[in-house]
């Protein structure tokens, strides 16, 4: 990246800087915290790329945390900011980076209540570039006993040729499967990246029984205070029911999320069509596994819980 001349940030530069900041922020979080087991989980689209090797770029860093961990994160945010600022200055000398808790910046007093989200916003700017790069880090606060039930493994991440030094509890692919089913059932509209992510998960996860996947879905369901009947109903929305006939729309959208030659390669290898078909299949699979395990909604609410 040539910073000797002033100019507008290019899309490629924005993506590179964003991914670099994500890696530095992730590493800063993992390296600054103490006991993380059962108290924090790195998941979401960026975990699929940095931990599990997906080529799809994702905008945010997403975590599930216990209430006590959210307090720990409050205490280390400035240290994470300091480390990330020092490291990004080595990549883009002269850059300014800040990491702000959005709620506190607005004068809000935030309680560590389960069901709420803590958000950090990272902002990069440089005197040689017109424009800024922002990254979001979101921490969903779950019940402490639920956070510990997620299936995770200690993992390091990698992006743009940079590896993290410190491992962090990250979602396994079967946990991500449940996350994606949960998310697609709850969204008000189609997010085409979910389709790609589900296809990637199925291409790399290996064989998993319906019983095991259902257990993962129970944890996600309880964490987000939903019910199996609500999830099943959500999976029958029109935009999901019509997914099988919307391949072209999915393909067009993915051009924005697969950088460089990744889109062309995915299209050439038939991966996009394969992933699209896999997502359709998994939505049907989730609906059938729920219907096979719960009674009629009229008989009981079937809220998820442990």
UniProtKB/TrEMBL annotation:
<dbReference type="InterPro" id="IPR014942">
    <property type="entry name" value="AbiEii"/>
</dbReference>
<protein>
    <recommendedName>
        <fullName>Nucleotidyl transferase AbiEii/AbiGii toxin family protein</fullName>
    </recommendedName>
</protein>
<dbReference type="Pfam" id="PF08843">
    <property type="entry name" value="AbiEii"/>
</dbReference>
């Amino acid at each position: 990246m040539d910073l000797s001349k002033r100019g507008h940030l290019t899309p490629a530069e924005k993506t590179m800087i964003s991914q670099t900041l994500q890696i530095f922020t992730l590493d800063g979080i993992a390296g600054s915290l103490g006991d993380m087991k059962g108290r924090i989980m790195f998941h979401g689209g960026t975990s699929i790329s940095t931990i599990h090797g997906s080529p799809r770029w994702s905008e945010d860093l997403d975590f599930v945390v216990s209430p006590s961990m959210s307090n720990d994160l409050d205490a280390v945010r400035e240290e994470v900011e300091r480390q990330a600022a020092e490291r990004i200055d080595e990549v883009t000398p002269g850059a300014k980076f800040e990491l702000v808790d959005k709620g506190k910046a607005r004068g809000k007093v935030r309680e560590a209540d389960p069901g709420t989200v803590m958000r950090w916003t990272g902002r990069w700017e440089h005197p040689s570039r017109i424009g800024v790069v922002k990254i979001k880090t979101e921490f969903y606060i779950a019940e402490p006993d639920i956070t510990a039930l997620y299936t995770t493994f200690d993992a390091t991440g990698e992006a743009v040729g940079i590896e993290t030094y410190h491992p962090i509890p990250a979602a396994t692919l079967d946990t991500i499967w449940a996350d994606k089913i949960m998310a697609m059932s709850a969204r008000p509209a189609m997010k085409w990246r979910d389709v790609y992510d589900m296809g990637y998960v199925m291409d790399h996860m290996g064989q998993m029984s319906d019983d095991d996947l259902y257990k993962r879905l129970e944890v996600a369901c309880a964490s987000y205070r939903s019910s199996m009947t609500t999830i099943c109903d959500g999976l029958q929305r029109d935009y999901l029911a019509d997914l099988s006939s919307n391949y072209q729309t999915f393909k067009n959208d993915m051009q924005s999320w697969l950088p460089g030659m990744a889109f062309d390669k995915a299209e050439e290898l038939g991966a996009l069509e394969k992933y699209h078909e896999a997502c359709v299949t998994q939505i049907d699979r989730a609906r059938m596994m729920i219907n096979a395990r719960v009674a009629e909604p009229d008989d009981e609410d079937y809220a998820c819980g442990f």
